[in-house]
Specification:
By secondary structure, the protein is of the alpha+beta class. The chain has one helix and four strands. Helix content is 31%, strand content 25%. A hairpin with a 2-residue loop joins strand 1 and strand 2. The longest helix has 29 residues.
Length: 95
């Protein structure tokens, strides 16, 4: 896949991830904790837990929560990972 296509798919996945971030924060405000898994949030559909990175396969967001922190991430070609950390409130690309 070309870099342009990868960049577009990553941008779309980050947009989708930002919607999950909003729902995670709303869950936290209502319950005082982050959910154990994304599907614990009312209104989350199965489609919403998948990124836009896969052209032929469905690639899920990876989510982990510990106390007042959580990470949301998805794989990017070249063995890299886009990750959102709630502490910094930013997405970053890491290898």
């Amino acid at each position: 896949m070309s870099n342009v296509v990868n960049s577009r798919l990553a941008s779309d996945s980050i947009d989708k991830g930002n919607l999950l971030v909003e729902k995670l924060e709303m869950f936290h405000k209502g319950h005082g904790v982050y959910p154990g898994q994304l599907t614990d949030i009312n209104g989350i559909t199965e489609d919403q837990v998948f990124t836009d990175m896969g052209l032929f396969n469905r690639i899920p967001f990876f989510y982990s929560a510990k106390g007042s922190d959580y990470n949301l991430s998805f794989p990017f070609p070249g063995w890299m990972l886009y990750t959102y950390e709630n502490k910094s409130q930013k997405w970053y690309l890491d290898d």
